[in-house]
Amino acid sequence: MKAEKVWILAIILLPVTTLFYEKTLATDQVRFHSETNGYSFIIPKGWIQIPEDIVRERYSKVLSSRTRAIVLYEAEFQMEGKDKWFECPTILVQMARYSALGIRGTLRKDEFSDFVKSFTGRDVMESKDELFGEVVTDVMTGYRVSKVVVDKANRRYTYVCEITIGDSSVIKSEVVGYFGKETIVQLMFNHYVEADWSRFETDRNLIFGSFEFDPGMQHEDTLSKSSGILDRLREAAARGLSYGLIAIVLGVIFGLFKLITFLSRPEEKSGDEQKQ
Question: Which of 44, 204, 19 has its CA nearest to residue 95?
Fold first, then answer.
């Protein structure tokens, strides 16, 4: 679907998040915490954060300004001892505010499933030209996503997606998204499909299972009788946000962003960043 002119998305651009690590008790693990957006999760031993400026530069080159106005890349992590940044496996952290998606207020728990359906039904191969530049569209040749499982009780959803690059390279992502009071945060564990995924099962379980929102940022169900999520997205379109664009961008936020990590050669680390 071709997107119409959008309402002023530039005002949604968020400042670069202040991020820091907190030591956890009696372990070699660290807890990654976003002060600005109010959530945290454990990073297992043996993982390091890719410098924020390198992550920011990488994604700014290939994402349209519309997309950057809606989603924020909080951070990305990789295993220690790699010669280049963005070498698999990686953990990508993404965040989007409900307000940036044209949704007023907080999602109700009974809206979660409809919200997920609003982006999983998109034809992402038809939408890629609008959201990415040639560096992406020239190499992305296929996309497949599993059924999305919504866990209303724990306010999260999970799925697996695979993207084919060129003739044969396939990248797989195991994805868990978390519904908060004002935001959705998504953690993506990315690796090549032929890799030994069982080797990282403990790390994945620790990362996904340790996620939590800060006090005051957790999702709290509302008894509001406001219109449903699909109606609210249509209301956003009436205010100037293209319903088609929102749906397309949702499809990208929750399935395609990790592709960018692998589209260009992983960047060489500078001399002082090499593992000692």
Answer: 19
